[in-house]
Amino acid sequence: MAEFHLEMKVNGKPIVLDVDPGLRLLDVLRDILHLTGTKEGCGEGECGACSVILNGKLVDSCLVLAPQANGQEVITIEGIAQNGELDSLQKAFLEAGAVQCGYCTPGMILAAKVLLDHNSTPSRLEISKSISGNICRCTGYTKIIQAVEIAASRIATKEGADHA
């Protein structure tokens, strides 16, 4: 099978690779780019462990073939920290105790990021809906929702300070 010339931006960096066109985006991220924060859970788009942000939308990378990411922008959990400093969502998850085994955490954080990027003051119901495609078997959703609320309150405080 002929290789596919893949060009995309991953975590702000241009990536150019020749890959098997049958590879999933998940495989490219983990096995070729060594971005192992993206996990393979079910491999069927049901658990959210492989969630990434593709052009501003949350997607299950196990359901995206590598050629579908050509020319696109991908953000993984590794891409949201800035200058070695955890993102406010990552900090909130730690503070709220919303992390146990950590398997679902990258997908949960990215789902919350997409929500907060579009709605900085979500209700509990909106938070619940935004993470509904991500399964957590350890922490439970209460602490995860609390973590998103903490991050949202910090965004609101920052926005208030910026407008003052």
What does this structure look like?
The structure is a single chain. With about 160 residues, the protein is α+β, with helices and mostly antiparallel strands. It has two domains: about 80 residues, Ubiquitin-like (UB roll) (Roll); about 80 residues, DNA polymerase, domain 1 (Orthogonal Bundle), CATH 1.10.150.120. Helix content is about 35%, strand content about 15%. A five-stranded mixed beta sheet has the order 2-1-5-3-4, with helices on one face. It is globular and about 50 Å long. The relative contact order is 0.15. The model has no long low-confidence stretch (mean pLDDT about 95).
Key phrases:
single chain; 164 residues; alpha+beta; Ubiquitin-like (UB roll); DNA polymerase, domain 1; 2 domains; 5-stranded mixed sheet; 5 strands; 37% helix; globular
How many individual domains?
2
The percent of residues in helical segments reads 25-40%
CATH architecture of the largest domain: Roll
As laid out across the biggest beta sheet, the strand order is 2-1-5-3-4
Structural class call reads alpha+beta
Overall average pLDDT? 94
Q: What profile does the largest beta sheet have? A: 5 strands, mixed
Number of DSSP strand runs:
5
Distance between the termini: 59 Å
Number of helices: 5
**Any idea what the radius of gyration is?**
16 Å
- Classified in CATH, the superfamily of the largest domain is Beta-grasp domain
CA-based shape: globular
Strand content: 15-25%
In CATH's first tier, which class of the largest domain applies? Alpha Beta
| Order of helical and strand elements | EEHEEEHHHH
What ranges have pLDDT less than 50 throughout 5 or more consecutive residues?
Answer: none
Provide the CATH topology of the largest domain: Ubiquitin-like (UB roll)
